[in-house]
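Section: protein folds

Sequence with per-residue tokens
===
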Amino acid sequence: MGGQRQVLPGRVYQTVTTLLNHRVIPNVRVQEPVWYKVVQSIPPSEMLTRPLPPQHKAPNPKARRPSRLFQPQEIVYEEDELRTTFYKDHPWELARPRMIIEMDGKDAQRYDWSKGLIQPGMPLCGECVVQRQLWMMHNIPGITKEHAYDTVRKEFYALRQQEEVERRIAKEEAQMVGAYFGKSFLQVGMELEDQQYEQWKKWAGRQIEEVQQERDSAYTSFGDEANPDEIDMDTLTEQAEEVAVERK
């Protein structure tokens, strides 16, 4: 069944072409389907057998089930593990805005990570730490991944501290000549969070009042208890017998 030729999918393009050429109203142009040009350039296959995806590593029949034989293998790079470790230890680095600008797509070839984390045209970020650590692991003999990470991490902390000092000094110098700085992004975010919290407190207070009112009304509307001396036992007996007969 897998090796049998299937010619019906290939005739879809021919059928649509015939319908477009033989229009009911000759002067009215019929719009071509979106997939028309694609099927023309890439016709469907006549064989239903699926090709085996490229194998990036030797398959292990014990660890890989036969049902996933045709599933593409996951492409894993060496930098992925280093990048995951860094951003796990420094999650706030992901919150820093980044601007990625490439001229010809070969900017990475101009970086020399043997000179440190600062590279021309690239701001200091977590990717600098990853590439610097990878360079040290490949070019310094006897160094381990953990040792390289600690070394680059200390360099990163020193540069971040230097940037913070320069930013604070520039702000103080600007304020000395009359500059005014508004609220920071963190202050704006905290104020918005406080507003939402106050609105939630008002809403929660109204909900509690409504629940309390319903509970109080349920207690006040409950009838008075009957007097045991006024209960007619014969009437209760007759009603109980009628209910028993209806259930039968």
Q: What stands out?
A: The mean pLDDT is 81.
